[in-house]
Specification:
Blueprint: H1 3-14, H2 19-23, H3 31-46, E1 49-54, H4 60-71, E2 75-79, H5 82-100, E3 106-108, H6 118-124, H7 133-146, H8 166-170, H9 189-199, E4 202-206, H10 207-214, E5 230-233, H11 239-246, E6 249-252, H12 253-266, H13 273-294, E7 301-303, H14 304-308, H15 311-331, H16 339-360, H17 371-376, E8 391-397, E9 402-408, H18 412-422, E10 425-430, H19 440-446, E11 452-456, H20 462-465, E12 466-469, H21 482-497, E13 501-504, H22 508-518, E14 525-527, H23 533-543, E15 547-550, E16 567-570, H24 581-592, H25 597-614, E17 625-629, H26 633-636, H27 640-646, E18 652-653, H28 656-662
Parallel strand pairs: 1-10, 1-11, 2-4, 2-5, 3-4, 5-10, 12-17, 12-18, 13-15, 13-16, 14-15, 16-17
Antiparallel strand pairs: 6-9, 7-8, 8-9
Helix pairs in contact: 1-3, 1-4, 3-4, 4-5, 10-11, 12-13, 12-16, 13-15, 15-16, 21-28, 24-25
């Protein structure tokens, strides 16, 4: 099928009276969706690259599924989360395939941590590592389920929490997998899932799996990627930050402790091994705990150089290295007759090498720029602007653990190389890719040179269904009483709307302060951290008039349609936290390359983050709502116009009376907000 024929067929399938409208009762034809689908079809046929921002409600999922299925090309579709992956595979893909009447095969492929490992489950049986009777009961349910599941996907166990510690006991990692040496290899769910994906026409993965494979982390399905003719990256705005993780390297406390415990479990298989392994395993666990304790003197997040300044931390690193060396010596004589011990030794070797690299590599959090970089900064190819090959070495502390990481400051180069190697079509789509209608920021991060771009506007009538309110007389965001002033400004909005609001904060400290100030209000209060996100959202929807207080994680991936959510409040422009060592190093590298860190990185990142938050407000054609942007910099700083120019076209006001009128007797009527255009906001 030629590009024109494929594009025409895609348009026709999505048109009023087309195949999807005929077969899917809820389907509504949307011109923007048809345009997007045609552009994707042309990129498929030409094996080109397309960046497409699709406003909320465009229907981008159907827009790319239609040409993917009609083209007959081997297509990899990557989504942002496992939940979206399941929704796409189990709901959207079958509906479109049935409507089109095509017989293409499809497969769902997740990372190995999602699949039951028979060997690990058998090892955990009888092991006293359960902290409660509930965990024992859950483990017994897993064992019973293991005998009847076809796919081995732990998502099938609806009553198993995502954060359950049992996941680590019954799944494998790239490090502890025994591969073909495993006695259960013939029944391996990971191997079976990869085989299904290899044979399928359309494979649904997630970004973590895709990037792990591109970065050669042995987590993905390297035998499948070379055969793919098209890649569709949904929620593509997440890709640059995730890619930086996967093209880097890390070592954390948990895998080190698991190595010690797995080595002890293997002793069941080899007579007399416990006498050799017990002391080194106990010592390794002890040294991990002691290192975490020594790091209490450090900030929660910082560079390798900062950790080096504390003698007790360096001494604890030395002790951990010695413990890993002792473990290596203990494991070597046991490897010949035991694939389990052989795997443990490989892990000990790898962890010790990572620790050494983290401690001894040059710290590039202040990157020097050589002459080649200077030349690149003036190159015509914008993907080479402000590029560098440095990395930053940093650490992060959790309540009981730590992570040591090396993160590249730039992933454009490796991503461009991998794309070129595939010789496939690449489609990047999201509701938030453009800044002020332009795609340069995203293009540079991904190493794209002159891609096709497209802005598919939201079909929702933001001009009459929404209103943007910027309160007057708020202090600067750095002011001590800022959160108190925000709550005071928001109260009359909540009174007008009868609650039904998200209040999104730039920090957890501000969130807690606001929760305290609002605790005696007339609306049910739901505060992030008091329950899992899914439970909070369920309670919020059920309340009918609740007020939910959340931080950055509630800016995206949250869908509350209808009257339950009619107000979204954003306290500050979401500029990245200054304590992030990777972000600071990236800004320094841009500066050294002759760029402007604020213009080239901080501002576009904040615009995209704000657009994500704004996207929570209007989710369907019948939704109505008010967006409250509290940050006075929107009207006092010149860059405020960049934010406004990147948001949907809706009227803006500085008068709370207009908000009250919006929620007044005419709330159900059309055009209530259109009477108040701009009103003093540039």
């Amino acid at each position: 099928m030629t590009s024109n024929r494929l594009a025409d067929a895609s348009r026709a399938a999505l048109a009023d009276g087309g195949l999807l409208a005929s077969e899917i009762a809820s389907f509504r034809a949307r011109p923007a969706q048809q345009d997007l689908s045609a552009a994707i079809a042309e990129a498929f046929d030409a094996r080109g690259t397309l960046l497409a921002e699709a406003g909320t409600g465009t229907g981008k999922t159907f827009a790319y599924l239609v040409p993917a299925l009609l083209s007959g090309k081997k297509t990899i579709i990557s989504t942002g989360t496992r939940a979206l992956q399941d929704q796409l595979y189990h709901r959207d893909l079958p509906r479109v395939r049935n409507a089109l009447g095509v017989g293409h095969t499809s497969a769902l492929l997740k990372g190995r941590a999602n699949y039951l490992c028979h060997y690990r489950m058998r090892q955990a049986q009888g092991e006293p590592r359960f902290s409660s009777r509930e965990q024992v009961a859950q483990f017994q349910r897993i064992v019973a389920w293991s005998g009847r599941t076809r796919m081995g996907d732990l998502a099938e166990l609806e009553d198993l929490p995502e954060d359950s510690p049992l996941h680590a006991l019954v799944t494998s990692t790239a490090e502890n997998c025994l591969g073909t040496e495993c006695p259960f290899y013939a029944d391996c769910f990971v191997v079976a899932a990869r085989q299904r994906a290899q044979a399928a026409d359309v494979v649904v993965v997630n970004h973590h799996l895709l990037l792990a494979d591109l970065a050669l982390k042995q987590e993905g399905f390297g035998e499948i990627l070379p055969g793919a003719e098209a890649f569709v990256i949904d929620e593509a705005h997440q890709l640059p930050e995730l890619a930086a993780q996967f093209f880097g390297e890390s070592l954390s406390a948990r895998p080190l402790v698991e190595l010690a415990r797995d080595a002890l479990l293997e002793c069941r298989q080899v007579t007399g091994a416990i006498a050799t392994i017990q002391a080194p395993a106990s010592d390794l666990e002890l040294r991990v705990r002691q290192l975490r304790s020594a790091m209490d003197e450090l900030p929660v997040r910082g560079t390798r150089r900062r950790a080096h300044e504390v003698p007790a931390v360096e001494a604890a690193f030395d002790a951990l290295d010695d413990a890993l060396a002792t473990m290596q010596d203990a494991l070597r004589p046991l490897c010949a007759g035991s694939p389990g011990f052989d795997s443990c030794l490989a892990r000990a070797n790898e962890f010790r090498e990572r620790l050494s690299r983290w401690r001894n590599e040059a710290d590039h959090d202040a990157v020097d720029v050589d002459a080649a970089d200077d030349e690149d900064s003036n190159d015509e190819d914008p993907s080479k602007k402000h590029r560098n090959d440095g990395s930053v070495l940093w650490y992060e502390l959790t309540a009981r653990g730590f992570r040591l990481a090396r993160t590249p400051l730039d992933v454009a180069g490796p991503l461009a190389q991998h794309r070129a190697r595939t010789q496939a079509a690449w489609i990047f789509t999201s509701a938030t890719l453009a800044v002020g209608g332009r795609f340069e920021h995203f293009s540079i991060k991904l190493g794209l040179w002159q891609p096709q771009t497209m802005l598919a506007p939201s079909p929702f009538d933001w001009n009459t269904r929404a209103l943007c309110y910027v309160p007057k007389n708020l202090p600067e965001p750095a002011a001590r009483d800022y959160t108190s002033a925000v709550v005071d400004a928001v109260r009359p909005v909540l009174e007008a709307s009868g609650g039904r609001a998200f209040l999104l904060f730039a920090s957890h400290r501000a969130l807690r302060e606001a929760a305290e100030l609002l605790k005696d209000g007339p609306w049910p209060l739901f505060v992030q951290g008091e329950a899992p996100r899914s439970i909070l959202l369920e309670r919020f929807r059920a309340s009918g008039n609740g007020v939910l207080l959340g931080a950055a994680s509630f800016r995206e991936g949250v869908d509350v349609a209808g009257d339950a959510l009619s107000v979204v409040v954003i306290d500050k422009l979401p500029f990245a936290a200054p304590d992030d060592p990777v972000f600071e190093a990236r800004l320094d590298a841009i500066r050294r390359n002759g760029g402007n860190p604020f213009r080239d990185e901080q501002l576009p990142q904040a615009v995209i983050a704000l657009k994500q938050g704004v996207g929570r407000l209007i989710r369907t054609e019948t939704d109505r709502g008010v967006l409250v942007l509290c940050d006075p910099r929107l009207v006092t700083k010149q860059y405020g116009g960049v934010f406004f120019n990147s948001l949907p076209p809706f009227p803006k006001t500085r008068s709370v009376a207009h908000v009250q009128a919006f929620f007044g007797p005419s709330e159900a009527g059309e055009g209530a907000s259109s009477q108040h255009p701009l009103l003093g906001i540039a």
